[in-house]
Design brief:
The complex is a heterotrimer of chains A (305), B (312) and C (429). Chain A is mainly α and 305 residues long. Chain A is built from 14 helices and 2 strands; from the N terminus they run αββααααααααααααα. Chain A has a two-stranded antiparallel ribbon with strand order 1-2. The longest helix of chain A is centred in the first third of the chain and has 33 residues. Chain A starts with 5 loop residues before the first helix and ends with a helix. Chain C contains 16 helices and 10 strands. In chain C, strands 1, 2, 3, 4, 5, 6, 7, 8, 9 and 10 form a 10-stranded mixed β-sheet that branches. Classes of the chains: A mainly alpha (305), B mainly alpha (312), C alpha/beta (429). Chains in contact: A-B, A-C, B-C. The interface between A and C is large, with 50 and 59 residues.
Chain lengths: 305, 312, 429
C-alpha cells in the first residue's frame, strides 16, 4: 500500500546522521592515530590517506600492550574490574529480576517502579551520594564500623584500610561500578525473565523435574538472551570508564584504560597515542560485540521461542 | 543465625535453612523469603543513598555527613558566601546548559529516531541489514570512545562545528537516536500492520493511513522515547565534557563531577536533586501520557516494559 | 603546571586541535618556520637523550633561568602617546574565574568599554583557538614555556612599554626583564607561585621543613598517611618532584635514564602510601580529604582564605622549598594580534600591574599572588590576612633569579619522554 521508496526515505536522515556523526568520527580517530604532530602547535596532523599512514604510534601502544608493558597492566586491571563488577551485577541482579518477574504479584508494580527509579537518576548523582555515605563520618562508613563489617573486610584483605574507603581502594571502585551500572543490567534481564511462559516451567515440573532442575534447564536457558544483553549493555561501556575511579579513588593504583586515553588528550605532544589506544580498545570491543551477536544468533536458532 | 547458635538448635536450624533456601530458589511457587530479602535489600541499597543526598541538600551546615538541622539556603540564599543552586552563577548556568541541551536533543533526536524506526522496521531492501546493525552500536559504545571520536571529528573534519553547545547537541543526538529507534520499533511490532491495512481497505491514501492511523498509535512510544532522550541527555557527562568549550558550556553532571573530585557541598547535592526532580517529572509525565493513550490495551504495553525492552 | 586550571575543577582539556588552525598559524609564521613545519613528529616515542642545544620554533635556544632569551620583534610595536580606544567590548582570553570581576569592571568603567571574558580550559587549547581564529580577543593569559611558539605563530603582538609604566615601577626586578622574554618584548607577568608541600599539622606529625636530607622525602615515608597523600596530576610537576627527591635539580632534563628513575621512585609510592593524584589540593586539604600534598603556594593561600574552617586554618602549613630547590613558575599577559584596541590592550597590562588592582585580585579573589613589590609577606602577616605559620607561602623577588628552578619548554621528544613517564606512573602497576 505504501510506495516502495517510502521506508528507505524515512530511514535516510537517521542513517546519514549516524554515518556522519558515528562512523565518520572513527575515521577521524584513525587519521589521528596514524598521523603526526605539528611541532609548534603540538596539534595532531591527521593522515587521511592510508598510503601515508605512520604506524609508529600504534606500534608503540601495541608494544606497551604486551605483558610487562604500561598498557598491559592497566588493561588487565580494567578487565578484572569489569569482570568482578559483572559478577556482582549477576549475583545481585539475577535474584532480584527473577523475584520481581516471578513472585511479587501484588507488589509487582511498586517493585517495578522502584527497580526502574535508579535508571532515571543521574549516574553522577548516585556516585555523589556514595561519596557522601563513604566519607569518614558518613552514614555508610559509620554503619560498617558499628557492625564491624569494616574489620571483616580488612581481615579478608578486601580493603587495605578499614576506615578510609575513599583512599584508593579497588574494592570501592568495583562497588561503585556495580552500583552505577546495575540498573542497565537488571532491566533487560527482568524483561527476558518476564517473557518466559510459565507453561514451560509447569511442563518441566509435570515431567518430574525437581525445582532446581527446572530452574537450571528451563528458566536459566530461557533467560540467557536477557543475561547476555544486560551483560553487553554494561560491560562494553565499563571498559571505557575513567570517571568512576577518578571520583571514588583518584589513585594510580585503581586507574583504568580510560584514564590513559584521558591523559593523552589532556595536553602534551601525543594526542596520537590517545587515538591509537582508542582504536585498539574499540577493536577489542567490536570483537566482544561480535561474539555476543554470534551467541544470540545461535540461541535464536536453537530455541525458537 | 547467632540466636540459633545461642539456643543450641544449630544443626537442625542450619539444615532446614539450607533446605528452605534450595526450595526458595528452586520453586517458583514456593514462599521465596530469600529472594524477598535480596530484592528489598537491593532496592534499599539502590535508592537510600540518593535519599540521603537529598536530605543533606537541606543541611544547615557545609557538612554532608553530620546533620545540623533543616534549611533551604543551599537552594535559595542570595548571600555571596553560599553558592546556592538558584543564585550562584556557575550552578545556575550549569542548570540552564543541561536543560538547553536536553531540550534540543529531544527536539532533534525524536523525529529522526521515529522515522528511522519506521524505516528500519519496514524497509526490506539492500542496506537495511547494515542500517539495523549500525543503529545498535551507539547503545554499547563506551562514552569515552564516542567522546574522543567526536572531539577529533570536530577538530579535524567538521571544523565548521564549534565546540560548546553546537558540538554538544550533535553528540547528544548521536547517542540518543538509537534509544528512540528501539522503543518506537518495539511499539511498531506490537501494533502490527492490521490497522493500516484496514484503513487502506477502506480507501485511505497512504499519507492518510500514516498520519491518521499509524501516528496516533505510535504516539505513546514517541512520548516515552522523548522522555527517555530527555533523561539520558540530562544524565550525560562524558560527551558534554569532551565537547564543551570551557565554563560557559558546563552541564550539571560536569559540575557534580568537579565538585566530587574536590569537595562536594550541600549545594552540589541540591543541584543534583533539582535535576533529578526535573527528570522524574518528565518521565512521569511521559508515562502518564503513555498510559492515557494505551488505556484498554491490556497489561503488556506498559511504559516500563518498553523501557525494559531495550535489552537489544 | 597551570594552577588556574583548578578553578574549573578537573575538566581540563588540553586538546582542541584544528588542522585548519594549525595550517593558518604556520602559513602566518613566516619563513623562519618553514623548516619546522616540514619536520612533524612521526611517532614511535622518544628514545633520544636530552638535547642541550635544542632550539625553539624561532631558532633560538630554549629559555632557562640561566639561559636568557630575547625574542626578536617581528614587527614594530604601536607608537607612543596615542589615546586609548573607547566604546564597545574589550575581550579578555583567560582561564575561567582567574581574575576578579571587580578588577575588570573598574577597568571598563574607567575607559568606557564593556570588559568580557572568553574562557579557555587550559593554555594549550587556548593557543589552538587563537591560532584557528575562532576567538579574537584583545588580551590573553600566557605562560613562559609557550611564549616562543606563540610568537612564532604571530599570535601575540610586541609591546610598547611606554604605555606600561607600572612594569618598571611596581614589579619585581627579576620579572621586569625576565629570562624567557628579555626586554619584555611580548609579555608582562601576572602571578607567581612555587611548588611545595601543603599539609595539616593535626594529622602529619613530622616537622617537614626540617627533614633531612630533603623534605620531599616525606612522601616516601608516608606510610601513616596512606590514602591521604596526594601529588599534583601534572606531567611536569609530578616527575620533577621525584627528581628533586633524589637531589637532582635538572627539572628540564631530557635524559631517559633520569626520567625512568624518577618514575620508578614515584611507583614506590603505590605501596608506601597508595598515593593519589589531583589538582584540587586547596580544597581537599581544607576539607581533610588529604593530609599531605604536593601543592602550589597559591593553593595554600586560597585554601586558607576561601576554604578552610577555623580548625583547618590553624592546622595548615606549607613548605616552600626556596630559591633553587623547588619549581617556581609565573603567568603572564600578552596582547593578541587580533586586537582592534591595541592602546587599550596596553593599558590593561598596565592596569593589572597596578598595586591596588593586583593586591585586590590576589586577596579578594584569586589567591595567586602578583609579583608586585607591594605584596610583602611581613605586611600580610602584620595586617592579619595570613598567619605567621603561612608567611612562607608568599614569594618575594629573592625567590627568582638565575639559580631558580623553572619548568620550561622541552623539545617535542622531551615532552613525549615526560608524558610517557607519567603515563607509566598513572598505570599504577
Amino acid at each position: 500500500m505504501y510506495p516502495r521508496w517510502l521506508w528507505p526515505a524515512f530511514a535516510l536522515p537517521g542513517v546519514v546522521w549516524l554515518l556522519i556523526l558515528f562512523v565518520l568520527p572513527f575515521y577521524a580517530v584513525v587519521g589521528v592515530a596514524f598521523g603526526s604532530v605539528d611541532p609548534i602547535l603540538l596539534t595532531a596532523v591527521p593522515a587521511w590517506n592510508p598510503a601515508q599512514w605512520n604506524f609508529g604510534w600504534v606500534t608503540q601502544v601495541l608494544t606497551e600492550l604486551q605483558p610487562g608493558g604500561i598498557y598491559w597492566d592497566v588493561f588487565v586491571r580494567t578487565l578484572e574490574y569489569v569482570l568482578l563488577s559483572l559478577a556482582g551485577c549477576v549475583l545481585i541482579g539475577y535474584p532480584v529480576a527473577y523475584y520481581i518477574s516471578r513472585h511479587a504479584s501484588r507488589t509487582k508494580s511498586l517493585l517495578l517502579i522502584l527497580l526502574v527509579l535508579p535508571f532515571w537518576i543521574s549516574y553522577l548523582m548516585r556516585m555523589l551520594a556514595w561519596i557522601n555515605l563513604l566519607s569518614p563520618g558518613g552514614y555508610a562508613e559509620r554503619f560498617l564500623s558499628a557492625t564491624h563489617i569494616n574489620d571483616l573486610l580488612f581481615h579478608l584483605g578486601v580493603v587495605s584500610d578499614p576506615n578510609n574507603y575513599l583512599g584508593g581502594e579497588s574494592f570501592t571502585v568495583i562497588i561503585a561500578l556495580i552500583y552505577g551500572y546495575i540498573p542497565y543490567f537488571i532491566l533487560p534481564l527482568y524483561a527476558s525473565l518476564d517473557r518466559i511462559d510459565r507453561s514451560h516451567l509447569e511442563a518441566a515440573r509435570d515431567l518430574g523435574a525437581s525445582p532446581w532442575r527446572a530452574f537450571l534447564h528451563v528458566t536459566l536457558p530461557l533467560s540467557r538472551t536477557g543475561l547476555l544483553g544486560g551483560a553487553v549493555l554494561i560491560v562494553l561501556p565499563m571498559f571505557g570508564d575513567y570517571y568512576t575511579p577518578n571520583i571514588v579513588s583518584g589513585a594510580p593504583t585503581t586507574s583504568m584504560i580510560g584514564n590513559q586515553i584521558d591523559l593523552y588528550f589532556h595536553g602534551g605532544p601525543q594526542p596520537t597515542i590517545g587515538a591509537a589506544i582508542t582504536i585498539l580498545l574499540s577493536l577489542f570491543l567490536v570483537l566482544l560485540m561480535g561474539y555476543y551477536m554470534w551467541t544470540i544468533h545461535r540461541a535464536s536458532r536453537d530455541l525458537p521461542a | 543465625m547467632s540466636q540459633a547458635v545461642a539456643t543450641g538448635r544449630t544443626t537442625t536450624q542450619e539444615f532446614s535453612t539450607w533446605r528452605r533456601l534450595r526450595g526458595w530458589v528452586g520453586n517458583p511457587w514456593g514462599k521465596p523469603r530469600f529472594l524477598v530479602v535480596i530484592t528489598w535489600t537491593y532496592i534499599v541499597w539502590s535508592i537510600a543513598p540518593v535519599l540521603v543526598a537529598i536530605q543533606f541538600s537541606f543541611n544547615d551546615s557545609r557538612s554532608l555527613t553530620v546533620w545540623h538541622g533543616f534549611t533551604t539556603k543551599w537552594y535559595t540564599s542570595t548571600s555571596p558566601a553560599i553558592n546556592s543552586v538558584f543564585h550562584d552563577p556557575g550552578l545556575r548556568g550549569a542548570l540552564q546548559q543541561s536543560m538547553k541541551l536536553a531540550f534540543l536533543d529531544v527536539v532533534i533526536a525524536t523525529p529522526i529516531g521515529v522515522l528511522l524506526a519506521l524505516g528500519l522496521a519496514r524497509w526490506r531492501g539492500r542496506g537495511s541489514g547494515g542500517a539495523n546493525f549500525l543503529m545498535l552500536f551507539p547503545l554499547v559504545t563506551p562514552e569515552i570512545v564516542m567522546g574522543v571520536s567526536l572531539l577529533l571529528l570536530f577538530s579535524h573534519l567538521l571544523t565548521v562545528v564549534p565546540f560548546g553547545t553546537p558540538a554538544q547537541v550533535l553528540g547528544h543526538v548521536t547517542f540518543s537516536i538509537s534509544y528512540v529507534v528501539v522503543i518506537v520499533r518495539g511499539r511498531l511490532f506490537s501494533i502490527g500492520r492490521s490497522y493500516e491495512e484496514a484503513a487502506a481497505d477502506l480507501g485511505a491514501a497512504p499519507a492518510v493511513a500514516l498520519y491518521r492511523v499509524l501516528f496516533p498509535l505510535l504516539l505513546p512510544a514517541i512520548v516515552a522515547s522523548a522522555a527517555i532522550v530527555f533523561a539520558i541527555s540530562i544524565d550525560d557527562f562524558v560527551i558534554s565534557q569532551w565537547l564543551s568549550n570551557g565554563a560557559n558550556t558546563t552541564t550539571v553532571p560536569m559540575t557534580i563531577y568537579n565538585a566530587t573530585r574536590a569537595t562536594p557541598q550541600p549545594s552540589t547535592d541540591g543541584i543534583a536533586t533539582v535535576i533529578m526532580v526535573i527528570t522524574l517529572a518528565a518521565v512521569i509525565g511521559g508515562v502518564l501520557v503513555f498510559r492515557f493513550f494505551t488505556r484498554g490495551e491490556g497489561g503488556r504495553g506498559s511504559a516500563i516494559d518498553d523501557v525494559a525492552g531495550f535489552g537489544i | 603546571m597551570h594552577p588556574k586550571e583548578r578553578r574549573l575543577g578537573a575538566t581540563r582539556r588540553d586538546f582542541l586541535m584544528r588542522s585548519g588552525g594549525a595550517a593558518l598559524a604556520l602559513s602566518g609564521a613566516g619563513s623562519f618556520l618553514a623548516a619546522c613545519s616540514n619536520s612533524t613528529t612521526t611517532g614511535g616515542g622518544a628514545t633520544s637523550g636530552g638535547n642541550p642545544n635544542a632550539n625553539n620554533p624561532l631558532g633560538l635556544p630554549l629559555a632557562r633561568p640561566n639561559v636568557p632569551v630575547t625574542i626578536p620583534l617581528y614587527e614594530q610595536p604601536i607608537a607612543s602617546g596615542m589615546k586609548p580606544e573607547t566604546g564597545g567590548d574589550f575581550t579578555i582570553f583567560n582561564y575561567p574565574d582567574y581574575i576578579d570581576p571587580a578588577v575588570m569592571k573598574a577597568f571598563g568603567k574607567k575607559y568606557g568599554v564593556t570588559v568580557k571574558v572568553t574562557p579557555f580550559d587550559d593554555i594549550n587549547s587556548g593557543i589552538t583557538k587563537l591560532a584557528s581564529g575562532t576567538v579574537q580577543p584583545d588580551v590573553t593569559e600566557m605562560t613562559p614555556d609557550n611564549i616562543a611558539r606563540v610568537v612564532a605563530a604571530k599570535l601575540i603582538k610586541p609591546l610598547n612599554l611606554d604605555y606600561i609604566p607600572n612594569l618598571q615601577k611596581n614589579v619585581w626586578p627579576s620579572l621586569v626583564d625576565p629570562f624567557y622574554d628579555k626586554g619584555s618584548h611580548y609579555s608582562v607577568p601576572y602571578t607567581v607561585y612555587t611548588t611545595g608541600i601543603l599539609y595539616r599539622t593535626d594529622f602529619v606529625k613530622e616537622d617537614i621543613p626540617s627533614l633531612t636530607p630533603n623534605p620531599w622525602d616525606i612522601f616516601w615515608q608516608a606510610q601513616a598517611y596512606k590514602g591521604k597523600t596526594a601529588l599534583l596530576s601534572e606531567v611536569r610537576e609530578t616527575i620533577a618532584m621525584a627528581l628533586l627527591h633524589r637531589g637532582d635539580k635538572d627539572i628540564n632534563t631530557e635524559d631517559p635514564a633520569k626520567i625512568n628513575q624518577a618514575v620508578k621512585d614515584l611507583q614506590e609510592l603505590y605501596n608506601i602510601c597508595n598515593v593519589k593524584v589531583g589538582d584540587l589540593q586547596y580544597s581537599t586539604v581544607a576539607e581533610r580529604k588529604a593530609y599531605l600534598n604536593q601543592a602550589w603556594s597559591g593553593d595554600a593561600i586560597s585554601g586558607y582564605l576561601f576554604y578552610a574552617d577555623k580548625e583547618s586554618k590553624q592546622a595548615l602549613r606549607f613548605w616552600n622549598p626556596g630559591n633553587g630547590n623547588g619549581p617556581i613558575q609565573n603567568d603572564m599577559w600578552s596582547i593578541c594580534s587580533t586586537t582592534k584596541k591595541p592602546v587599550l590592550a596596553h593599558l590593561w597590562l598596565n592596569w593589572i600591574l597596578d598595586n591596588t588592582q593586583g593586591y585586590n585580585n590576589f586577596l579578594n579573589y584569586n589567591g595567586y599572588q602578583p609579583p608586585l613589590t607591594e605584596v610583602d609577606p611581613g605586611q600580610l602577616v602584620k595586617k592579619g590576612i595570613l598567619p605567621e605559620t603561612l608567611s612562607d607561602t608568599v614569594l618575594t623577588a629573592a625567590d627568582l633569579g638565575p639559580t631558580s628552578l623553572q619548568e620550561m619548554t622541552l623539545t617535542t621528544q622531551g615532552q613525549q619522554l615526560w608524558q610517557n613517564g607519567y603515563s607509566q606512573f598513572l598505570s599504577g602497576a
